[in-house]
Amino acid sequence: MGIKDILEKVLRKDQISTSESELYRHSRDESSHDPVLPDVVCFPESTEDIQQILHIANEQAVAVTAYGFGSGLEGQVIPMEKGISLNLERMNQVIEFSPEDMTVTVEPGITRTMLNEKINKYGLQFPIDPGADATIGGMAATNASGTTAVRYGSMRDCILDLEVVLADGRVIHTGTKAKKTSSGYSLTGLFTGSEGTLGIITKITLKLFGIPEYLIAARCTFPTVEECAEGAYAVLANDISITRMELVDDTSIKTVNAYGDYTFPEQHSLFFEFAGTKDTVDAQVAVVKELMEDIGCDNWAVATTTKERHELWRARHEMAYAFQHQQGISYFITDVCVPISKLSVIIHYTRELMDGYHIHGGILGHVGDGNFHTFLTFEKENEEEKSKVLEVTEKIARKAIELGGTCTGEHGVGIGKKAFQRQEHGDAVDVMKSMKQVLDPSNILNPGKIFM
Amino acid sequence: MGIKDILEKVLRKDQISTSESELYRHSRDESSHDPVLPDVVCFPESTEDIQQILHIANEQAVAVTAYGFGSGLEGQVIPMEKGISLNLERMNQVIEFSPEDMTVTVEPGITRTMLNEKINKYGLQFPIDPGADATIGGMAATNASGTTAVRYGSMRDCILDLEVVLADGRVIHTGTKAKKTSSGYSLTGLFTGSEGTLGIITKITLKLFGIPEYLIAARCTFPTVEECAEGAYAVLANDISITRMELVDDTSIKTVNAYGDYTFPEQHSLFFEFAGTKDTVDAQVAVVKELMEDIGCDNWAVATTTKERHELWRARHEMAYAFQHQQGISYFITDVCVPISKLSVIIHYTRELMDGYHIHGGILGHVGDGNFHTFLTFEKENEEEKSKVLEVTEKIARKAIELGGTCTGEHGVGIGKKAFQRQEHGDAVDVMKSMKQVLDPSNILNPGKIFM
């Protein structure tokens, strides 16, 4: 009896698929990692469904890989050892919304846009913004963040409680609905970012934030990347609670101008977003303008209307597309994060590598966090170019670790960053492995990820 | 050969003490939990010393309990199974200070005041403020926070990396110096708040924050605790980055007026602190004043000068002393944290309990976090009164958990909150225990804490 037949004992037929198109959809994510087809795709509708599936998977020694929206960038959803792809899209409900507590409990398959649509009318938002319309479950599993991390942190900072089904079918809660806790070991932080290797997340309680009544975007340019980093530091050191602060290098600006018909000054740029009440925002903008001018910025421009602001940030978001959506082009994205003082060092290193290897690409940075991405493009199916790009991503990751940073600031380890875990974490890798061993002794949960 | 003789093989004589006064000092903390004398006190001076001590402890099956400043409130430093008290006061150095990264790496024995003295001149601060001048190691071990958590979070939010000596002597690093990471399992969060039961923290890398150029304190009163909670909610919902926001109930105000010769209006009060540049702070104060007046506050008062501001916050800090430092009086402090919407419910419940049991005490709350403390006093050596107080602390803790909260928001589990772990965490307690088992199979690290 095949795994599909066994699953049919506990799930309805429409919760199980082995159609070619579904197997293909669940074989890959947004990255260029090689796809692997699962044997079967399941569509659980409840925590109980997942318990049943994991019981079967344990009995049959079949791998289970959770799937959210497929927008990951390190192959976390690719079922390396085939088996079951666990698609959580039907578990997409808001379970409990407490505006007065500024918390919401959701199922993992809800996307951040769906969630915000439901809560924005109460003046509340979930502001973590990884760019793609990822599911909250996927964002929790990878500890995602994005442009707003400088203000709101990463997923781990915004999760109060997780309901998790463990490999053996036990269901636990990792936290409570209280904002702070010193009770017991922090399992919330441990399961967040564990990429489906320690358990399947079935509910997530999130901190929410007020929607600021007033927003302003601004940008300026500097002759060098060092001065951009200096500018970012000045904002942080003055304890200004900026909501976004992004570095875009000159090459990236040129690319987006060409792609999107923009006319940004083609120099290294900082993009800012300020949020709050009108008075506090106006005061912040004035302070930041002065700080930037002290360092020697050019082209300070403020977008006060909603239209201008959207325009400016749309351009920033289109940077990614400008590199990605070119005919016949594939790409890998680096995601290193370093201490702020090392940012200009590693950006220079990266740009020199790209030039040396003749790789076209751009650098976009969440500069307030020391996190930046390099888009490294290659011609589709060109194995030689692809291997050059992979060589460069490796060099950048190892350099970041040497500089006291990490190989991944927000995308997670998945497949692409496994090779750097020992360099980055040393013997702590063995501690991590011992937790995996204790919680999933048969290694059924997303095998082949995080660890070599 | 006794444990002292064995320790003398690896430590100098002045690093080992069995003097009565040292044993006494290491038998207790600031709480009223029963003291237990260790067999011996060690004063390690390096990570290597601690590795040696743990090797001996493992061989001899002797308990090791870390000791920072002794300011804990749940008996974490009390050596329940005697053995070795590991006093970290000689490991109190700044190892690496990177103002440009806004990070610092310190040894565990440095206190937060010592640390701030070294870094304030660079315009930077470590703002977590639990009240006492605790060590950074102790604060990390209990995931401490305090009045500034509403702005800066708890220790777990501010730690980038820990160096930890595991029970078997291995030394690991749990993170990096980068501000964000999605690499591997979050061991930083796991060891933070583990109260010396999973390993001994030997280095801590902290996020630092800019010292705001301008501060304003303010206060107002409301007829009911519900309106205080409503006021706090309005501040949070408007995304105003306040640095402190404290609830003090009418009884506590009366007590501090009597104790400190203050003349605060004797009603339920909110205390605020705003920080930033002068313009942003002035704007924030104006917004909050308007929000409070909309809800119906009385007695809005602003302290603009440093002297007035210190006066106002000194009064808040003296609340604790007003209850504690009365001749012949002991006390227990509750530390529950609930969803904000449940705050007035549990505060009423608490006040009714105190009245019903005829217990004198006060309620002080980190209202922005839903965390509050009840000082429950009893006559020293009066076992009947003490057991009444313990009964009330139990009822408050269990009520908080029922309301979706936690038995401890910032003090930790130690001895006093062990009994509530199963109610709060359910089967997750077994997951926690399995991690303890895997990392400390002989249970030498702070036995008798966290778990029953």
UniProtKB/TrEMBL annotation, chains A, B:
**A Pfam short name:** FAD_binding_4
Q: Which InterPro entries match?
A: FAD-bd_oxidored_4_C, FAD-bd_PCMH, FAD-bd_PCMH-like_sf, FAD-bd_PCMH_sub2, FAD-linked_Oxase-like_C, Oxid_FAD_bind_N, Vanillyl_alc_oxidase_C-sub2
- Every copy of the FAD-binding PCMH-type domain together lies at 33-211
Name the EC number(s).
1.1.2.4
Which cofactor names does the annotation list?
FAD
Q: Which UniProt keywords apply?
A: FAD, Flavoprotein, Oxidoreductase, Transit peptide
- Which is a GO BP term held by this UniProt record? lactate catabolic process
Highest taxon listed in the record's lineage: Bacteria
Q: Which GO terms describe its molecular function?
A: D-lactate dehydrogenase (cytochrome) activity; D-lactate dehydrogenase (NAD+) activity; FAD binding
* Entry's family note: Belongs to the FAD-binding oxidoreductase/transferase type 4 family.
Identify this protein by name: D-lactate dehydrogenase (cytochrome)
- Organism, per UniProt? Candidatus Pseudogracilibacillus intestinigallinarum
